[in-house]
Amino acid sequence: MLVMTKLDREQSLREIIRGRLSSGAVTRERPHFLNQGVAFQIGTGPAGDCGACGDEIRKGEPYFTLASDLRLHESCERLWEYERHRTIPGGA
Fold this sequence. Notes:
Helix content: 25-40%
Distance between the termini: 31 Å
Shape: globular
Structural class: alpha+beta
Number of strands: 3
Largest sheet: 3 strands, antiparallel
Order of helices and strands: HHEEEH
Strand order of the largest sheet: 1-2-3
Oligomer: single chain
Radius of gyration: 13 Å
């Protein structure tokens, strides 16, 4: 049986997010309304799939809405925020 540690899961999510940023499947830009100092929206699922990792946002699970079509798990938002600055467009 394979046991994934929290660190393994985070590394896996980082790799998924980097790939989605590189392919353009997920934006690296903060939505305009967030750049104006307006807080992001937060809710609890169900809310479809996470734009960063692709997994379902389940009922009762906290998530961020960064645009009308971009919803991220709470933990994925933090990793997306880091990786969008770290990852160079067109590179890995």
